[in-house]
Amino acid sequence: RTNRAATRAGQPAVTADGVTVLVAANVGSVADARAAAAHGADLAGLVRTEFLFLDRDAAPSIDEQIAVYREIGEALGGRRITLRTLDVGGDKPLRYAPAPAERNPFLGVRGIRRSLAYPGLFADQLVAIARVARDMPVSVMFPMVSTVAEVIAARRMLDEAIGRAGHAEGLRVGIMIEVPAAALRSAAFTPYIDFVSVGTNDLTQYTLAAERGNAALSADGLDPAVLRLIQLVGTQAGVPVAVCGELAADEAAVPLLTALGVRELSVAPPAVPLVKEAVRGIRLELAGPLAEQACGLADANAVRALLKPGNVHSG
Ligand code: PEP
Ligand code: MG
User: Fold this and answer.
1) Exposure string (b/e) for 75-94, b if CB count within 10 Å is 16 or more?
2) Mutate to test the pocket of ligand 1, among 87, 144, 202, 233 (most ligand atoms within 8 A of CB)
3) Quaternary structure per UniProt (predicted)?
4) pLDDT per residue over 266-275, tens digit each?
5) What is the ipTM of this complex?
């Protein structure tokens, strides 16, 4: 199966009933971008730009950012790259843009909040992104959004950056849905954005009040509470919906996410071929009712039991 997946990795992923699902790659370095292309990713659905900003004494210059973003775009050979603006929290120190002392960094000045707190830093990143968007297909995405006001403020700064860059016609603008407040109100963001991408790692953490990576808690993104939020986004967002958290690479979850309206799955580069194969096995006429049912089950274990391959795949 792995061999067949590798052979077909460069082709689009279409369900058995003819729905195309983009299978994208999550990228955290230029090397990842090369791996994404090698594994047949349709685009880079999440570029974690933190790698450029962490472990240094000063922020990268606009020119340095441009060079790296371009290199990533070139590695992807003309496929779209989705540049997420800086997403750091109080748990990852930035000497040149510190967070206040926080007792709970995951609920503190992180993601878009940090960028809005350092407008000079944010403006430089937006100018770099807008410049790169002049010569290749680029999307920009804001992390950890919780209110519409944040998106309006970020867009205003983006529009200014586009003014400084000259033009950036192909630039698409999106937000990550990682906070329950944003999932509950996804329609309120529609006037300001072109797409949303659900970050299931953080969305699971914040929905279940269970810290990411805390082995004692083992929160599962297939929890019906998380699924309900994704379903809400799928029906209310009014723009294309992607998923870029770990759940997107979970073969059991792929049919369900697709049935909930997700049309892009962004995963670690090596996972691209198998996720494409999983998409090809989906029959939405079966997956749709199962997704409905999953949203009403008791817990993630019950959902996993329901999603046994025979139930959702054409075989
Ligand atoms: C997520 O939260 O699901 C996500 C994709 O972002 P990150 O893992 O970088 O926080
Ligand atoms: Mg996140």
Assistant:
1) bbeebbbbbbbbbbbbeeeb
2) 202
3) Homodimer. The dihydroxyacetone kinase complex is composed of a homodimer of DhaM, a homodimer of DhaK and the subunit DhaL.
4) 999 999 999 9
5) 0.99
